[in-house]
Structures are given as structure tokens and as C-alpha cells.
Inverse folding.
């Protein structure tokens, strides 16, 4: 890892490679090639090699990539070789489903606080979490040093929540609301947009 | 719309432009420019112009794009100027949330059938839907001529469900399961991958 700037599109493909590598490992494979890794990731072999070369030399000429080693390297590059504590804001149907979904914790994203502003929900339990009032959100997140948050509030409330999260020291937001968020440049936002994905596919029908 | 092949990456940006145009319309705007449209969509003005030029001449030199007109054109290109009936498979926490979420219907994706294989769920109501047994899924979808489906079953069940959906005549699948689906080439699959989005952001923390 030198100081050079890596294009974001390259970084965005690393989780895809990692997912494919994990599948190969599950299938009992121990080594792979850029061809194989590319095919299963729907990316060309040349692109795989180019992407990985930004970060170092991970394969051996002729023998390909060791799956465990390359997975570890990608986890380390993405800083997901450690766990991340996450705050969830908004316990509607979707927030409820996410708070109970084990998949995030299994990949190292541990939901540690769940917030809502509905007095009938505050204090109730969702899985092992007690729903906390948004009034104490900024303070609670700040004190715990949490930097990752999921927004699952209605669209109209999303910007106000994002503003509070930024104030609380959050650096990365996964936004499930159908709203674009204005945040300072140093804050990362990714939006989950299933409707845009559906619209994209309709072109081909 | 001529017979030329449009790169998929271009098609994938159309829903993003449409979303931005809808925001401008909501804000009371009637015209926009490639610069403005690009800025709010996080895409360069040159790219906006190039993307739209694949489909025709939508703007006037000097006066920009009419927002209503361009929105209509994009909807027509994406074939979302009509409604689409959708089948939902899997009524766990997430499927439950989606079945009750009005956002899909508001964008023209009307969930008309909800399936599950759990005998304790079959026959019960979720919103206005009665949960149907997966045994009658292929037949029901085929008879109704539905071509779009959402998969919200656990990962281990996703491939078997996808196989059945293909058999039923489904052409586009929005896959919420953390599993890659093997489907024939003429079937479109988009995967909702919030965990990959989180992993991507961690690089920057």
C-alpha cells in the first residue's frame, strides 16, 4: 500500500473479488487464476490483474493466486480484517428486518445501537437490542466512537438523520432511504437502490 | 431507438438521471442542463451528453433539457412508462418488509403474488396479499404472464427458486439473497448487495 490514489471503481470491485474467492474456498478450491476469478465475478481476466496490481503482487506466474492469501490481503486492504460497530437508525419494517438479520454481523458489521423516534418503540426490544431514542443518538454514537451507520428511516427524514450522524462522527453511511444525502466531502455514502436496479433491467424486457 | 447495441453501463445510468430529473421536478424546475443533471447525479456533463446521445436528441442547444419531456423519454426507453407485475418469493423478515413497502408500487412495480414454502405462513395475509405455496408458483406466474420477480429467500434456497422462476417464464430477477445465481443468458439478474457496499466504504475509513 503506497500513497498512490486508487480509482474508486477499482476499490468497488475488491468486495466482488472477495465474495468470489469465498465461494471458491467453500467449494474446496485452494488456488485460482485471474481468468477463473474474472469469469465468476463477471469481470475480464485482464481487469482482474490490473485491479489487483494496484495493491501489489498477489499471484505467481503460472500457479495463480492462493485463495486464502488473496482473501486475507483484500480483507486487509478494505480494512475488514477487523470488526466494525454499526449504528442503525429507523426501525420501520426494513430497519426491523435488518436489525434481526445475522448477515451483517457474520461479515464483521456488528449492529450495536438501534435508534428510533417513535415513543411506542423506544425501550422495546428488537432481538437483543433495546431501541434507543434519537435524542441521545449523537451523544451515544460519539461516546462509543462508532463511525459506520445504516439509515432506514423514511425518505423525508433521511437528511436530518444524516446531519446528526455527521455531527456524531459517523464517516460511512449506508443509506436505504430513497433520498440523496448532502454530506461533507470526507463522509462516504452508499445508497441501496433496488428500484433503480429494477428499472435498469426493464430496458432488456 | 435504432438497432444499435447500447453499452449496459450507459443503460444503468438512465435510472439515475431519471431520479435526478424527478428531484428537479419536485423542486419546481422545468428545464435543466447536462452540467446540472450531471452534478446532481455525480456524473460528468460530458458523460451525460454522451449517454443521452445514444438514444436521440433530447436537448436544445442553449436552452438545455425540458425536464418533463426528458423524464418521459427515459421512462419510455426503460419501458417503465407502463406498470410491471411482480412476484415476490420468500416471506422472511426482509420479504415481509418488501411486501408491505409502498415504494415499489409507487414506481410502477406492483407486487401481485407472494410465495413461501412455510406451512405456517401459507394462507396468511401480508398487507393485501395472501401468501401462496411455492408448489403452485410456476403455474401461477406462467398463467399470469409475469416476467419480473424478487427473491428474498435464504441464500441456500436461492438457486432452486431461481430455477423455478426461469421455468415459469420470469425474465428479470432482483436477488436479495447473498448468493450468485446461475441462469440462462437471456435472463437478467441484479443482486442487492448492501454488505459489498459497506465493505467498499471501509477502504476509506
Amino acid at each position: 500500500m503506497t500513497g498512490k490514489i486508487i480509482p474508486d471503481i477499482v476499490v468497488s470491485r475488491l468486495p466482488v473479488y472477495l465474495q468470489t474467492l469465498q465461494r471458491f474456498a467453500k467449494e474446496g478450491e485452494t488456488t485460482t487464476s485471474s481468468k477463473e476469478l474474472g469469469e465468476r465475478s463477471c469481470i475480464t481476466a485482464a481487469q482482474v490483474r490490473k485491479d489487483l496490481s494496484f495493491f501489489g503482487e498477489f499471484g505467481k506466474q503460472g500457479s495463480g493466486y492462493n485463495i486464502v492469501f488473496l482473501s486475507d490481503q483484500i480483507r486487509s486492504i478494505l480494512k475488514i480484517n477487523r470488526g466494525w460497530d454499526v449504528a442503525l437508525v429507523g426501525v420501520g419494517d426494513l430497519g426491523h428486518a435488518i436489525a434481526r438479520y445475522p448477515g451483517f454481523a457474520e461479515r464483521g458489521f456488528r449492529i450495536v445501537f438501534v435508534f428510533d423516534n417513535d415513543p411506542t418503540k423506544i425501550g422495546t426490544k428488537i432481538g437483543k437490542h433495546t431501541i434507543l431514542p434519537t435524542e441521545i443518538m449523537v451523544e451515544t454514537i460519539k461516546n462509543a466512537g462508532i463511525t459506520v451507520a445504516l439509515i432506514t428511516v423514511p425518505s423525508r427524514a433521511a437528511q436530518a438523520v444524516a446531519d446528526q450522524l455527521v455531527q456524531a462522527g459517523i464517516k460511512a453511511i449506508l443509506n436505504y432511504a430513497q433520498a440523496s444525502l448532502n454530506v461533507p466531502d470526507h463522509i462516504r455514502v452508499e445508497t441501496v437502490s433496488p428500484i433503480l436496479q429494477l428499472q435498469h433491467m426493464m430496458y432488456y424486457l
About this structure: The CA atoms of residues 54 and 164 of chain A lie 36 Å apart. Residues 8-26 of chain A form the longest helix (19 residues). The two ends of chain A are 44 Å apart (CA to CA). The first strand of chain A starts at residue 31 and ends at 32.
